[in-house]
Each structure stands twice: as C-alpha cells, then as structure tokens.
Write a structure and sequence with these properties.
This protein is of the alpha+beta class and about 450 residues long. It is about 30% helix and about 20% strand. Helix 6 packs across helix 7 and helix 7 runs antiparallel to helix 14.
C-alpha cells in the first residue's frame, strides 16, 4: 500500500468465537480470505478475439482444474490496464456467476501475457500462503457451505468480491500448509492403483461410482488398503479358535455337526494375500440357517401392522440395512411357530433366490424371521468388525464370482446354503479386519458423496 500498488481497504469483520464452525490446533488460527490475499477483484471486460496483445481467460477455458493455454482466445488490453489485470502464476481465479459459481483454478504454466474475464474474480495469495492449500480450501465443504450462504440472486446465482473476502478458513503455519498439501498429493498413487484394479473385475457396470466401489472392495480383500502391524497376530490362530468354538457348540447340541467343507487347494486361490492372512471357506467362519418352508410359513393374510419383522429380499435397502418404512410383520404367536429362519443381533441376511447375493444387516431390528428366499449368516465371532468384514466381502466381486459359479442357471436364479458355505474368503487377523472396515467406510463414503 505504501508503494501505491494496493488500495487501503475497509477492515474485515473480526471473527467471533460463535462464528467458528470447529476447533483448530493451538498454533492455527481462523482468518478471512481477504486477510490472506493481497487483492480480490473482478476481471477485465472485453470480447474474445483471434488477435490481441493478451490472452483472455474465461470460465469456459477452465476444465477439470486445467487450462489449455494455446486454445485460450486473445483480446486487446491497454498498457495501463495490464497493471491491474495481468495474471501471474499462483493467482487463483473463481467463477462468480451462473452454474459454475465458486469453481476455482490456480494459474499454472503461464508463459504469455494474459488477463481474466469479467465473470471471474481473482484472488492474489500472500507470499505467506501456500496457494495449493488455499485451493484445497476452495474444494472443501466448509468453502461451499459459506459460498452457498453468501451467493446472491435467484434466477442467476452469483457471488461478489466482498462476500469472498469474508469467507472464513482455518489457517495453519506455512510449513504445515505445505505438509497438508503434500499429504493430499501423496494419496494420488493409491487412488491410481485402485483405478487400475477396476480392469481386473469381471462384471463392471457403466456407472463410475459402482466401478470404484467394486475396485475398493476387491483391494480390501487383497489386503491393499491397510498395512500389517506386528501385534496383529495370525489369521490361522483365529481360524483354529473358531473351530474349537464350533466343536463346543456341537458337543453341547447347540449346533448340528455338518459335513466337512472341501479343503482350500492351491489351484483354487484366485490371488495372493498377506502372510498373516489365510484362505478358508465362508462356512468355516459362519453358520447358516435357511428360512422356514414348512406348513407354518406365514401367508399374506396373516401379516400384521406391528409385531415381529418378516423379511424378504425387497426389504434390504441400498445401504445394506433393513427397511423401516416397508417392512412386513407377523404376530409373536406366528413367529414362535416357525422352526427355522429366526435372526438375532449381529446376523446378516443373504438372498438365495431372485436378487442373488443381495446382503443386508438386520439393523434396526434385534430379532425377526426371514422368508424362504433368504438365508441367515451368523458370524462365529461376536464382533461388529468381523460381521462388517464378512458383509463387505459378500458385496465384493470375489464373492460375486463364486455366486455365479454356484448359481444353478435355471430361469429362476437360485443358490443353496451348502454352496454359499463353500465360498472362498481371505481371512485377515481380527485387528486388521477393524482397520479394513474403517478404511472402507471412509473411501466408500467419499465415492458416495462424490
């Protein structure tokens, strides 16, 4: 300002304690965008041309955070105007109107004279701000929430420079800004690897989110989403403890003795897994129960508006739970007449007919019964992460391939519980299952939210 290169502007409102949306580390602070920018101002008004002494950057020239500068049109700018409007590398431009309101771009690889059009607002970051950190802020929910609140207009939404100056952002020290940017950039190879896994799947849908979810699930089954830790133990020990528990239940006549499952042959294994994992059959780690098919099978005329949930495949929601709005119910007396197919807390339900392989958790219910089109899968370890790992496994392409292998191929798709028990499943130690489930929830949520 002393050099006359910037005008003195009105002070921005002080950030009060009740303005702050969340706490930040002690050596951070909350700031307004206008506090960390040397200047925030509107662009140059001109018409695009094939000739002129400067490039004219427009909203439409910015695609996927990239500008093809050789394709940007030109315009004529007076020398005195270039002082105010000439772009420099590190500048950030933001769309201020229309459907792209809030869209931002860091000027990079600019080796020509260029200005920015009037539908853009330029933010010139201070030298004490990492422009990439500022750009990451402009991609965050906090930025978009504030922008939506401050945008003006109904027919043609827009935001002005004053509103942008007042946006609040959490501000770390410069060195930490750089570490944050580096960390976010370090995630790129992992995402690239996950995208490569997509090409190994047999059945992909045309929608990208579904393909990415499939890729993430397969990567989880390969042990590629988590690191091993020394105190995780070995999954073979977990498998032995499950077998001992099964034998105890058989001895106490709480579980029927079943025919041994086929051993896992080396040629059956579809891919390598970490050394502390092991391959087993789904029937080795869970017990199964079919829905009741006997004379006590509830008829539609016996459904009630309250009572015990009577679940069919249509009651499994897209997010893998049971519906609270479209559930059928049966009376307690009818429920007690059933011999099989009663679920309990911690169980999964799995579709054997119709929508093969559809899987759901029994929440929000703690008890109920399933129709004959479903089977109950009861994990042998009463641990939510063990149940969730099996749930994600059953939604993976690995389980889907085996489903197709055992489907009887008739006009009415059909599976048998004895065949589901033969599914090959890669089993991690229990401690790693917890990390896998947490990582999957994080990444699948990111895909779901775009």
């Amino acid at each position: 300002m002393r050099a006359g290169k910037l005008k003195k502007e009105r002070a921005l409102p002080e950030i009060r304690e009740d303005d702050v949306p969340f706490e930040v580390p002690e050596n951070w602070c909350w700031a307004r965008l206008g506090d960390v920018a040397l200047k925030i101002h509107y662009g140059f008004t001109a018409s695009a041309s094939v000739t002129g002494n400067a490039k004219l950057l427009r909203i439409t020239d910015i695609q996927n955070n990239h500008v093809s500068w050789q394709d940007v049109p030109r315009c004529t700018v007076a020398e005195h105007a270039l002082v105010d409007y000439r772009l420099q590398n590190r500048d950030i431009v933001i769309a201020r109107t229309g459907g792209t309101i809030g869209k931002s771009y860091i000027v990079r690889e600019l080796d020509d004279v260029a200005v920015f059009a009037s539908y853009l607002i330029r933010v010139i970051p201070s030298a004490h701000i990492n422009e990439s950190y500022l750009k990451r802020f402009m991609e965050s929910p906090l930025y978009w929430k504030q922008l939506e609140a401050k945008s003006q207009g109904t027919g043609q939404p827009n935001v002005n420079g004053k509103a942008l100056s007042n946006l609040m952002l959490p501000l770390p020290p410069l060195t930490e800004q750089e570490r944050i940017v580096q960390f976010l950039q370090s995630l790129t190879p992992e995402l690239t690897k996950l995208e490569a896994d997509e090409h190994e799947l047999d059945a992909l849908t045309s929608a990208f989110p579904a393909r990415m979810k499939s890729s993430l699930l397969l990567a989880a089954m390969r042990g590629e989403l988590t690191e091993r830790e020394p105190d995780d133990g070995d999954a073979r020990d977990l498998l032995k403890s499950i077998e001992r528990e099964k034998q105890r239940l058989v001895k106490e006549k709480k579980l029927k003795r079943e025919k041994p499952l086929p051993p896992v042959a080396e040629e059956d294994v579809p891919f390598e897994i970490p050394e502390t994992w092991c391959w087993c059959r789904l029937g080795d780690v869970a017990i199964f129960q079919n829905g009741d098919r006997g004379k006590n099978y509830p008829k539609r005329t016996e459904y009630t508006t309250r009572g015990i949930p009577w679940v069919n495949a249509g009651h499994i929601t897209a997010d893998g739970f049971l519906s609270e709005t479209s559930m059928n119910f049966i009376s307690i007396d009818k429920y007690q007449e059933l011999r099989n197919g009663k679920f309990q807390r911690g169980d999964l339900v799995y579709c054997l007919r119709g929508t093969l392989g559809k899987v759901g958790r029994i929440e929000p219910y703690s008890e109920g019964a399933v129709a004959s089109s479903l089977m109950i899968i009861r994990p042998m370890v009463p641990n939510v992460y063990f149940r969730e790992y099996i749930f994600h496994y059953l939604k993976s392409a690995l389980a889907r391939r085996q489903l197709l292998q055992f489907d009887n191929g008739s006009a009415q798709p059909n599976l048998a519980a004895k065949d589901v028990a033969k599914y090959l499943i890669p089993l991690p130690p229990l401690a790693e299952q917890r990390r896998i489930v947490a990582r999957l929830e994080e990444l699948l949520g990111a895909v779901e939210n775009g």
